[in-house]
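ERR on first pass: missing label on line 2. Operator R.T. fixed the label and resubmitted. Corrected input:
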Amino acid sequence: MNEQLAFVGDVHGNLDALQGILAALAELGDPHAIFLGDYLNKGPHPAAVLEVLLARQRSGEVTLLAGNHETALLAALDTGDLAPFLKMGGATTIRSYLRRQVRPDVLGDFRAQLPLEHVDALRAMPMVWESEDLVAQHAPLGITTSKFRISAHVPVGILPRITANSAQLDTGSGSQDQIGRLTALLLPSRDFVQVDASGEQVPQTS
Amino acid sequence: MRLGAGNSAPRLEQMTSLELIRALTALDIPDSILDDLPAVPETVSAMVVYGSRSRGDAVEGSDLDLLALVPTHQPTISAGAVSLSFYTPAQMDTGVGTLFGAHLKRDGKVLFDHDGRLTAALGRMGQVDTTRLFRRALAMSQLFTTPERDLPKYQWGLLRQARYLLRSSLYAQAIALGAPCFSVREIAVRHNDADLARLLASRQEGEAALEDYSDCLSRLHDLLGEFPANRYGSLEAALVNEWGSGSDLLSMAFMALGSSGAGSDYAEVEKILL
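pass 2 clean. output:
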């Protein structure tokens, strides 16, 4: 396959970073982008992040995999137990959908404001994306495979960790300290582009 | 015994772990507890042991409480009987004037301190501001005022937090009366109330008992006065609406969610240092 692909790490509610990385990819000819999950929590704008990504998914520009933060949100909706999602920092996601003070029945209030379209999209997100020579999923794969493995989830510092057989792309977007970056890995070249917390492209040398 | 197995600088990590084990062995910490010691991250520059294990009044089953100085925030590790919490220098400084700070300064034993910063921070802890403590405890007690929504889900966490506020308030009362004390057993003796030691113990067997919760709240009420109403109407709503504020109420609500399943995916809020 000669077509260029981009793989993007955890966004975590940082809308500026998402828009920055989409602009950077547009400059590179808009390769199809596979996002590795964790759109929600941490940063302040999970609802808007998902809105932007779902619009791009509808037009076929991006593929959205599920991360553990998405799985945790669905588990909260399914079980009625909000505690594990809240412990992961779910408050920022709830607030981004409500944009006002939440009522005492938090889950009920959240359910009422969460667009069905978003819930359906979250439920439909695959865990894995695979091609002849690549396999991508949110958390690093524990299995051995001859394919090039791409993952996120585990913070690796501000630079992606790219080896002969694998790439890890969680470079801390949405983190509280604002020093995290959002990374897109380009294949087949194995180059990468990054934006900082404000969405500014980071020069490759730093 | 588990030693550090970090992939970047295992030697430094192992040296710190060995240093720690030597220091703890010198304090007669039993091997059964040392076996639970988690790996010490290489960023740790200093450690102090506090609580009954440093005071020397530990009984069988007492926890080993360790505090480590680190450059950036990280979550507490609980492994068996060992609790290892991490503080940045800035977090240490929020301990000035608190029970936590006074407690550490009085009973803590520094195990190692590579650059002297922990020892210096302990030296700055000062006297406990009991007026401030009672005011903060009262503000946090609003979390106990929406039981119809919260008790079915969070009884265990609420009991734990009620116990923490009661224990802290009793210590503060002892200080305000001019006779400081940092032992629940000693407090129970002073109050001539054998049940108090069991009620206040940080590690509890079995289910969270509703009677214990009511008992804690009624004693807390006697110490603090009328609890203010939770203006958000539930524990979860307090947590969501206060998120990012750094308030005591937020930390209290977050702690009351319970610690089950805690891991690296979990968010962190400010520690409550009363």
